[in-house]
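Entry 14. Structure prediction run on the chain below.
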Amino acid sequence: MARGNTRQRIQDVALELFAEHGYEKTSLREIAERLEVTKAALYYHFKTKEDIVISLFRDLTRPIDELIAWAEQQPRTLETKREILRRYHAAVMGAAPLFRFMQENQATVRDLSIGETFKRRILALTRLVVEPDFSMADRMRCISALFTMHAGMFFMQHVDGDPEEKREAVLEVAIDLVTQAHEGPSQASRR
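Output returned:
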């Protein structure tokens, strides 16, 4: 992430420690020690671990909120949906540590309510890429396109290959799914 100000450094170090030890086993004291600051200095920015996670979630998912706002103003064309996927892919990659945290700490995410907020974002994105008249298979293709981004982030890290090539492959598959939903055989019968 390599972000510079104190608040961001706290978030980054907390996320590192949550990844290393788990959310429940990481204390504010450990975060302060890793940062080489006093607990009081940490308290100036965040009173609890929950405050840190919620702030991280807000900061790192802001591009998703901006994407949804942008997409809601665009025509519902295939090219718009492809651009939604490109931008969502960039947002997911930019927030990869947070998504990994969410995956590895699902109970905590539910308890902190960020899970429900994330679910609302996913449902909003789904409405933007799925057309009401799509067949069930084509709806599933569009929904799968979004989740391809998540699966790609988690599973492609265990696949040998160039990281950029893997990221491009994930995006290509997602775009192919939405394109097929728009142009595939089930849509051809409606033209």
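Residues 1-47 form a domain with the Arc Repressor Mutant, subunit A fold (CATH 1.10.10.60).
Filed with the rest of this week's runs.
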